[in-house]
Amino acid sequence: MELDDLKKTWNLIDEQLKDKELIREEDINRLITKAGSGIHDLGRFITRSLVISGIIIAYFIITSIFADQRDWFFTLLLIVAFPAIGWDVFTTRYLRNTRVDTLPLVDVITRINRYYRWMIWEGFVGIAFVLGVATFYFIDKGIWLFAPSMILLFFFVWALVLLLLYWVYQKKIMRRIREIRKNLNELKELKDYNIP
How far is the C-alpha of 49 from the C-alpha of 43, rounded, in Å? Predict the structure, then answer.
């Protein structure tokens, strides 16, 4: 009797599996391509920001040479700019080496999660740096001695800088990383579900 029940249960499960569509390779390849292109797009964005940063630094260097003005603000920017550019080059190479199509999925997820944590810290450090530079510039140049309209302009400009920095991190970097992580998690679920 138990053997008949087991056969009936087995046949019922077999019919249910026949009705369900198994995960297709095309779905997995689509998610791999989507995650890979997201990582590639993020790397391209950081490369473009590196080029823009290099142009700005070159502008500061050239104008300081021709104007023959070198103050602490310019020196501070240069001292911080070169390690920041080195960090961006490192993270860009890190992203470029994070290949969804060749690395095991667990490694890709680990690398993207690590990169996500790095970007959170980079955002905090960037905002702290901008606030520090604004504060020291305010004190060094004696901004409080100027007319109220100049003081308001000072705060308005630095607030715009902070908002731009926040916008770049949230909309251009963190949103893309969240999309990549979502795609990788879907891919992991599909691969786990598709294991025979």
Answer: 10
Q: Count, in order, helices (H) and strands (E) of the chain.
A: 6, 0
Q: Tokens 């949103």 belong to which residue?
A: 175
Identify the CA nearest to 125 among candidates 176, 87, 71, 73: 87
The rounded distance, in Å, linking the Cα atoms of 139 and 133 is 10
Candidates 41, 43, 40, 49; CA nearest to 126 is: 49
Give the Cα separation of 146 and 141 in Å (integer): 10
Mean pLDDT of the chain: 79
Residue appearing with tokens 């020291």: 136
pLDDT at site 196: 47
Q: 172: which DSSP letter?
A: I
Supply the pLDDT for residue 182.
85
Query: In Å, how far from its chain's centre is CA 187?
Result: 20
